[in-house]
Amino acid sequence: MEGKQQYSGLTDKQVKENRIKYGVNILTPPKKEPLWKLFLKKFEDPIIRILLIAAFLSLGISIIHNEYIETIGIFCAIFLATGVSFWFEMDASKKFDVLNQVNDEDMLMVMRNGNVGQVAKKDIVVGDIVLLEIGNEVPADGELIEAVSMQIDESCLTGELSIDKTTDPEHFEEGVTYPSNWVLRGTKVINGHGIFEVKRVGDTTEFGKVAVKATEKVEGQTPLNRQLDSLAKFIGVLGLILAALTFSVLVIKDVLLDSSVPVSLGQLSLLGAAILGVVIAMIKVWMPIIYDGLELTGKKMHLPKSVKEGGWLRWFATGAVVTVAIASLGYLFGVNPLDSDSWVSIDTAAEILQAFMVAVTLVVVAVPEGLPMSVTLSLALSMRRMLKMNNLVRKMHAVETMGATTVICTDKTGTLTQNQMQVSSTNFYGVENQVLTDSEVSRLIIGNISVNSTAFIDFSNSAKPSALGNPTEGALLLWLNKSRILYSNIRNKEEIQDQLPFSTERKYMATLVNSPKLRKRVLYVKGAPEVVLGKSKEVTTTGGLVSVNEYKDIIDKQLLQYQNQAMRTLGFAYKYVSEDDQRSVEELASTGDLIFLGVAGISDPVRPDVPDAVKQCLNAGVGVKIVTGDTYGTAKEIGRQIGIWNDEADTDKNIIGGVDFENLSDEEALERVQGLKIMCRARPTDKQRLVHLLKQKEEIVAVTGDGTNDAPALNYADVGLSMGSGTSVAKEASDITLLDDSFSSIATAVMWGRSLYKNIQRFMLFQLTINVAALLIVFLGSIFGQELPLTVTQMLWVNLIMDTFAAGALASLPPDPNVMNSKPRKNSDFIVTPSIARHILVTGFIFVVLLLGMMYYFSSPEHLNSFFSYISEEDRGRYFLSYFFTVFVLLQFWNMFNAKAYYTGKSAFAGLSKSAGFEVVALIILIGQVLIVTFGGDVFRTMPLTIQDWGIIIGGTSFTLWIGEIIRFINRK
């Protein structure tokens, strides 16, 4: 490169000064939260929170009774759910870190102290003079001071695979995202060479700014979290109402209306003062639940600041003060609070405490302990299975959020297209059927493509060779390779005598060779078709040479067709040069007597699977929008090819450029945003604004991208989907990485997400039926003096272990492609739909009637003795308890099959052959119940049942399934 020595570069002293003044050339890595913080975040789950309240209330009862099994069980449920979730996300994070390694140690040529030397990328500073060659990744942002035939791959920032760079203001390109004399960190030199002065390093570069945007924290709940939050509020309100009702009924029944318990008016007033004090002391428990209930009815109310921010000790003290104050007022009415006779008796106090513990037990029973574990297990299993389908899920809830997605904003290059330029069509007018042979014209075409080029082919992956250097020239070499013509053989045999490289100013490249095959000196010319045609006199056709003027209309028509399809076009020409002609290549090419060979249309083709995947998404009610840095024409053509753009139906209202979008006010943009299908010439901030406005319209937005320019939008979206081959910044900002870079994997992820949501709903139907049954039995039993004949350990088996297995069974059901035939669910839809609620209440009520009937019937010794006459008299009571426990479990067992069939409209037995996981878990639950009843002993308070009774119970409880099958059969008809 002439004139390099005129740049002396920085001195060592200036390097140190500039590093201190402008910073280092390293991107600030995203802050990684410590493991303990990540683990504690899992406790923010709404169901986990309400479970924690139940656990501490249970702990209070345990301390009084000195029985800790239930409390330990609930805490185990909490730590299992949070632990499994944490472990799976950590595992995915490790896989991601391996995928996402960045190298700041790459060496580049830099001019310092008047000499050229190697400097690591991270050590480059503002003011450095950096020399760029083909293949270099630009280390920082800067201004070109020399550029020779320079082309840059800016796809990581703008989506453009090839951008011409120049220092000549007359040839600056208009409408490009970044100036023609600027090079940017992270982009790659694909042709030519140049020198630039570093102006910005590290976080201040365009790449760095985008990376910072990509790591900003975006607040907001996932759709599933919102649903679970509503469910937790509903369960909390229901539990509180039932607890308050139960406590009131029991106190009135057992204390106030019981004639054997004498209570004076003075004692009642002090009792009221004590209860009011406890209510005030517990205000931080019950008041948020009441406000949650009001929120569920649509009333937006904010919790009083004193309750939200006030400490527990403050409210305990307030409760004590209120009790003391009211008790002190008793003096005015002749009630002395210091006299023990003024208070209710110890026995009456014990009755009231018992009523309170029954009320708390109701809250504990109302909370589905297995639900967090089950949701976690469902998400975790889906994470693992999606990995086999090329979706590396980093954030667990992203699996389900994909199912709720209503809009996908997708990048073009590398996502919809293959990110590799290919020859789409050729028109070499002297070649029959465009098949290259050994004819003279074919040899001239092969020579022009092979020798008149600066590109190479990388054969390191023999199954999929790739182009190195200029992507357009590389596409031509790959086209030859498909015809089993090896460019290197031609290039090695033809002697290059002179070469004129491509430049933005000339718009063509020319090479003079001595061809042993043709035994002549040949000038090959390749470039912009209009330029090459302008230098030509004749066109070679299958019928011989024809004047350019005669053929110009045909060529122009062909070029217009290619340009309408958003293809890049190249024209090819040649001429024979005599041995004694010593003119330069530029002079030879400028005489206007070239012979035109034809044109080629080159494009980055759409991936074969994309149109079908886009159609699948559109049919599923998920909108697809293209957001690209490419031109208007290219973006529109890709939209047409993938099926989102219709020339007849769509207008300019459906497409917009990045600059025009920026100029719209927020109100105007918000009005247009849902109708937009394509955004071209988009910059990172445009894409992020688009996502922000779509979310304002209550859309659930998924964003795909592989470049650094996509990172802010990936971070801001509800789900960010990066490509496995994308930049590290894009992957860091995403929730899911598509290892195969395929849009069809996105459609698969939507199907998985929707199927997962249905599986969670199926589990809700199964789990909440158990809770409703247990809740009503405890509630009605306490009022009518009947205790639930199930022990704490038995309830733990039902509520925790069995539920976890059931969650595994329902989560292992294969994804149902039919979910893609319906529209996305509304963001406001409650996870427990009216049909699920109906099923839960009706089934729960039937179970309660059956179980209470059993309890009432067998409470009579006469019935107990006659029914179980084959069991020794002293064991009949315990045998009934084992019998009751097994009936309770098997009712739930058969209901699991009904849950499996929910929403499908098919029999519970349909698809069982493809649901091996479900079958295995069902078998485990059944075997587990047999083992517990047979060998549980005193721990589970069971004794072995006879084979005959097992048959009666299994057959009798199966009515649950058969009634469900009959209802499904009638509905199908």
Give the helix/strand layout.
Blueprint: H1 12-22, H2 35-41, H3 46-65, H4 69-99, E1 107-112, E2 115-120, E3 129-132, E4 141-153, E5 163-165, E6 182-183, E7 188-200, H5 206-214, H6 223-256, H7 265-281, H8 283-296, H9 305-309, H10 312-329, H11 346-366, H12 370-387, E8 391-393, H13 398-404, E9 407-410, E10 422-428, H14 440-451, E11 456-458, E12 466-468, H15 471-482, H16 487-493, E13 495-500, E14 508-515, E15 520-527, H17 529-534, E16 536-541, E17 544-547, H18 548-564, E18 568-577, H19 585-589, E19 594-603, H20 610-619, E20 623-627, H21 632-642, E21 655-657, H22 658-663, H23 666-672, E22 678-680, H24 684-696, E23 701-705, H25 711-716, E24 719-723, H26 728-733, E25 736-738, H27 744-783, H28 792-811, H29 834-858, H30 861-867, H31 876-901, H32 916-935, H33 937-940, H34 947-957, H35 959-972
Parallel strand pairs: 9-20, 9-23, 16-19, 20-22, 21-22, 23-24, 24-25
Antiparallel strand pairs: 1-2, 1-3, 3-7, 4-5, 4-6, 4-7, 8-25, 10-19, 11-12, 13-14, 14-15, 15-18, 16-17, 18-19
Helix pairs in contact: 3-4, 3-11, 4-12, 4-28, 6-8, 6-11, 6-27, 7-10, 11-27, 12-27, 12-28, 13-27, 14-16, 20-27, 27-28, 27-29, 27-31, 28-31, 28-32, 29-31, 31-32, 31-34, 31-35
What does this structure look like?
This protein has 973 residues and is of the alpha/beta class. 51% of the residues lie in helices and 15% in strands. It is built from 35 helices and 25 strands. An 8-stranded mixed β-sheet has the order 8-25-24-23-9-20-22-21, with helices on both faces. Strands 10, 13, 14, 15, 16, 17, 18 and 19 form an 8-stranded mixed β-sheet that branches. β11 (456-458) and β12 form a beta hairpin. α4 runs parallel beside α12 (370-387), α6 packs across α8 (283-296) and α6 packs antiparallel against α11 (346-366). The model is unreliable at 1-5 (pLDDT under 50).
